[in-house]
């Protein structure tokens, strides 16, 4: 069974990252508006050109005894967790995410946690239901 992060879900997370950059840059407008605007423009370019494609490249595969999360474009990252060590799942959904059908899935395992941003709510609920039975797939 394989799940993937949608492009619209990754764009939604990118919107929240850009909004956080705007809020962080607001106090610096009084000191130097031009530098603050330049820093905000660079942050927006990083979000749109690097972070959103990285988040949308995320794939989650559930095997017989393990869960594999792969993400990355230039530098690929693979995280493999045995199903029996996954101790919890948390699904976080904002009001805007509810309208778009996306959410953030947090997988908690002994010694680590994994954040999967922009996954569809139905996929996250299905994955959480399968993982909540002690690693036994239904």
What does this entry look like structurally?
The mean pLDDT is 86. It is elongated and about 55 Å long. A hairpin with a 5-residue loop joins strand 3 and strand 4 (77-82). The protein is built from four helices and seven strands; from the N terminus they run βααββββαββα. With 138 residues, it is α+β, with helices and mostly antiparallel strands.
Number of helices: 4
User: Which structural class should the secondary elements be placed in?
Assistant: alpha+beta
**Largest beta sheet, briefly?**
4 strands, antiparallel
Mean pLDDT metric: 86
Q: Summarize the amount of helix as a percent range.
A: 40-55%
- Which percent range describes the beta-strand content? 25-35%
Order of helices and strands: EHHEEEEHEEH
Total beta-strand segments: 7
What are the defining features of this structure?
three-stranded antiparallel beta sheet; alpha+beta; four-stranded antiparallel beta sheet; elongated; 4 helices; 138 residues
Q: How is this structure best summarized?
A:
The chain is α+β, with helices and mostly antiparallel strands and 138 residues long. The protein has helices spanning 7-25, 33-56, 95-100, 121-131, and strands at residues 2-4, 59-62, 66-71, 77-82, 86-92, 102-109, 112-120. A four-stranded antiparallel beta sheet has the order 1-2-3-4.
